Model the fold of this input.
Amino acid sequence: MRNSEVWVVATTIATAATAASAAISDRLGIGAAIIERVMVYAFRVRALGIDYGRRRIGLALSDPTGMLARPWKTITATGAPARVAAALAAEIDALVSEADGLSTIALGYPRRLSGEANEQTRAVEAIAEQLRTLVRVPIVLQDERLSSQEAERLLARREKDWRKRKPLLDAASAAVILQDYLDSRSSHTPIHSKDEDL
Done:
């Protein structure tokens, strides 16, 4: 069974199990939110963050629980969106085939601080469109405003020499984008409230 098939089966099981969590909680006397949270974490696998630039593309990976992002590597951006998407698809296929798999791609979505499109927005949309035809992993456009500044700030804590920081910046920006996505996703996971009976 391929990883993509395993993901479909796992997602189906997780959906059914989540729907049944209320019945299980009634029977076992455990809060439904706790059961749902355990089921969500049980089926999470890695996510990939992408920071597209005209010259370089930063990549970041989460840990297998899908909780923490870390810079992974930088690849060269060359050619039209179809060519860039093909290069990214090769990286994604390699990750999918690994034991930890890949559940989601968070592609940095550039916009102005006002929320309006900028000169990079259309390029990222074109790459996302091409990439969706090449891979089966879901792609999320994640707001990347100020991600480069945040990455630069984090890198400057460890490395004072900007010449040494520069080659690390793209992957670090991808990690900021990915962590923002992971944090927003986990904030939607139900949390057991103090008022809920266990």
